Each structure stands twice: as structure tokens, then as C-alpha cells.
Amino acid sequence: MLIGHRGASRQKHRRKKISSIAKEIEIGNDLVRLGQMEKALAVYKEVVGRNPRVPEAWNNLGVVAENLGMVHDALRHYNHALKLRPRYAEVWCNKAMALYRLKRERRAIECLDLSLKLNPGNALAWVNKGVIFSRMDDHQTAIICYDKAIKIDENYAMAWMNKGVSLMKTGEVSKAVSAFDVALASRPDLPEVWFQKGKALAISGKTQAAQKCMDKVLELEPSYKEAVSQQTERGADMEDK
What distance in Å separates the CA atoms of residue 108 and residue 175, rounded to the nearest whole number? Predict the structure, then answer.
């Protein structure tokens, strides 16, 4: 009875400890959602400093470090998480994008393949894989990846948007516009999709429709540099005339 009681006591203490860690991680997550990355970084660092065997905390620390431009640090944090949990599919996906930012595309694809082997239904991993193939100018393979993501989630706006970009690169501009329209049907608040649709319409010679898209971009995000540049160039053209 005494041994059993001690065991129960330790288990109860462990549950309290795990619960406390989860609460601290959630505080960091809330800060991330508020865009307060520096504060989130401090929270996650404190968590791993006191509890270094929590892979979720190392993963989140990596995500925030990457958002702050500390890509090498992020990669180190992801590797630490994977040492603790080698089958952590989300971390393999995150590690891949850190490698992508370091221009290690082939290794990034290997990591995404590992992530997808562990979790084939991860639409984000398929989108990320498509993005990497797109940067390697293999747009046909990129489109296949985006279609895999869309098969998992037919309303995945970022998959449709990236597919549209690759379709533009392969000269299928009308299909690209259709892809952007699907993306906007579920996420009309994304300025990047409006911008890409505007580019596709401009390529098609539909200048007025393209300008309406650029206007929408600036309505959603007034500081959107590429759209501001488009507006400036249009103003200069009008003055020349």
C-alpha cells in the first residue's frame, strides 16, 4: 500500500508538472498569435531551460526563432525536438522550411518526405513541398504537390494560390486566374492572392480588372510594396500620356 501510494503521488506530481508546462506553452502560443514574437521567444526559452525534455516547447521555440530571422537557431531547436521525438511529423515539416530558407532544397524535400510518411494527410507539408519545387523551377511537380494538398483540403487557399502561381509560370494563365478565384472564395482577406490574380489578369491584357485587384490589395494592406510599386508605375504612365 505504501509503495502504491508513493507511486500515485509521483504520478499526480507528474500530471501537475505536465499541466504547468502546457499552460506555459499556451501563454507563448497566445503571444505568437498576438505577433509578440520576442516575448514568446522568452517564454519558450524559460520552458526549455527548466524542462529540457519537452519536444513541443523546442518546436515552438524553433518556429518563433525562424519568424525572427534566426534560421540557424531554429534549425538547432528543431533538431533538439527530433532527438526527443524522432517521429514528430510537424517538426520534420518545420525543419524542412528552415532548410529551404538556407537554400538546402534537396535536404528540405527529404525532411518533408519523412513528415509525409509519418502523416500523409498533412496538407501543409504538401504545399511546402510544392513551394520548394517551384523555387527549383520544377512547376509541374509543384502543381502535383499542390493538388495533393487540395485533395486533402479542397478549400486550402494557400494551396490554390501557389498552384495559380505555378500555372502562370507554365503559361496557363486562365487556369491560374481560376485557381486564384477558388482561393479567394474561401479567403478573400489575403492580399497576396489578389496581387497574384492582378498579375495574371495583366498578363491576359485585362488591365482594368487587374487594377481593381491591385486596389483591393492596398485596401487590405496599404503598405504592400509590390502593389504600391504597381500604382506608382501606373501613375507615371498616366502622366506621360
Answer: 29
pLDDT digits (tens, 9 = 90+) for 84-104: 999 999 999 999 999 999 999
Closest C-alpha among 205, 185, 183, 97 to residue 196: 183
pLDDT for residue 1: 33
Q: What b/e string do you get for 49-87 counting C-beta neighbours within 10 Å, with b at 16 or more?
A: eeeeebbbbbbbbbbbbbeeebbebbbebbebbbebbee
Rounded to whole angstroms, the Cα distance separating 191 from 183 reads 11
How confident is the model at residue 231, as a pLDDT?
53
What does the DSSP 8-state code read for residue 104?
A: -
Cell numbers 499541466 correspond to 19
Spell out the alpha helix ranges (H) of the chain.
2-33, 37-50, 55-67, 71-84, 89-101, 105-118, 123-135, 139-152, 157-169, 173-186, 191-203, 207-220, 225-240
- CA dist 63 and 78 (Å) reads 8
Report d(CA 23, CA 37) in Å as an integer. 17
Q: Cα–Cα distance between 35 and 31 in angstroms, integer?
A: 6
pLDDT tens per residue across span 147-168: 999 999 999 999 999 999 999 9
149 within 8 A of 122, measured Cβ to Cβ: no
Instruction: State the Cα–Cα distance between residues 192 and 102, nearest whole angstrom.
Output: 23
Is the pLDDT at 237 greater than 60? The verdict is no
Residue pair 163/179 in contact (Cβ under 8 Å)? The answer is: yes
- Calpha distance 149→197 (Å, rounded): 20
pLDDT band at 225 (very low <50, low <70, confident <90, very high): confident
